[in-house]
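Sample 1 of the test manifest.
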Amino acid sequence: MNEKTIAANLVIAEHSEAVLIGRLVNRDMKAFEELYEEYRRKLSHFIANMVNKPQVVEEVFNDTMMVVWQKIGDFAGASKLSTWIFAIAYRKAIRARSKIDEPMPEEAAVTEDLNENDTQEAYERGRLNEILKKAMRSLSYEHRTVINLTYFEGLHYRDIATIMECPVDTVKTRMFHARRQLKKSLGGDFADWL
Amino acid sequence: MTNEVKKTCDTRVETLIPWFISGQLECEELAMVEDHVANCRSCAEMVKIERKLASAIGENPMEVHMIPSDWASFHRKIRESDLDRSVRTQQEEINNNSSPSSNVIRFPLINQFKKKIAQPRTLGAIAIAQAAALVAMISIPNIGVTPVQNSDLGVGETSEVDQTYGVLSSGEQISSSEANILMQFKPEMTLQEFNDIFQNQSITLISGPTSSNAYLVNIAEDDKNAQLLALRSNANVTLAEPISAE
């Protein structure tokens, strides 16, 4: 993809977002329903990495979308719409976390969900994935958030800084430590990733 | 490897690798990392490892609870929220307009009336009071124009109230929980002054204004005489009379 195509795609994306925002500001309920469904999938993962109770995850999601509906008129476009929505969800999730005393549950036994009838390769892959999930759970929610927003949502560190309301350098530092912690948690199994 | 390059490996490039891998770097930073990785074996190796890790994380999200779709319920909530905000906005506008210099306008008083009837202590009387007010409004087509005749009332003299509000003096029984006082105010009365009267817990606005700018009010029976006295001494009150004959 050449630079012109990238630039053109960017313009199209920005125009599409502007059109969507316009529809939302004009109280287009159909547009908001589409947004609701889109972010139901996106935010399920994001919020669940910070809050471990399904009911609270749903509450945080609904609270987030309510704020989006009520405040869309105030959205000045300083960031992307997705960044703005994620930032709202992040703040709501943090507040919800402060009301929950229980820590994230420990990962179940590594081989519990693995099917011994799978091929050796599939079994190994499944085992390593379970180890990775356990390693992710060992991270603080802030480190986990940076990892997820980077690798799962594909966001730039500037967008992540906006979402997490911290300096850009803090995002980079958290990512640095998160990667180091992951490699440490994966331990000897890490060589299997190579 | 020079010290300067080694320092770069330890800091700038390494911290940018995740966003290099996810394709988020632009222009200057992208060029810097690409150039360095092409010339630094250890960083190139690190990129290779990180790509595998990033790929594994991206393909294998932690188990999450997928939020169930309940658009219908959420749609209802935002409708209710919009209604609440609309009422609050209207109330704020009334409060913002209630300065001593503001003119009395009938519409804000109607809105104030709507707020008052929403209060729990008036709800019990509303259905009947509204019906009574509606009957009164329908039955008083020409208030102040056609005084009620003595013969209609069966009294020696026609009181000021009777002259103007004959139907209301017809002897119809109204319960104590409904309007029992008829009031009128000076045209120049402000909203704040109007509000001050109804801040009194014993006085409840039931309905109004009628076509003649009268208000139906309830005063608690045990405090009625004292309240009537106080109302009549208020410079803004031009009329405060019991509705039913006592």
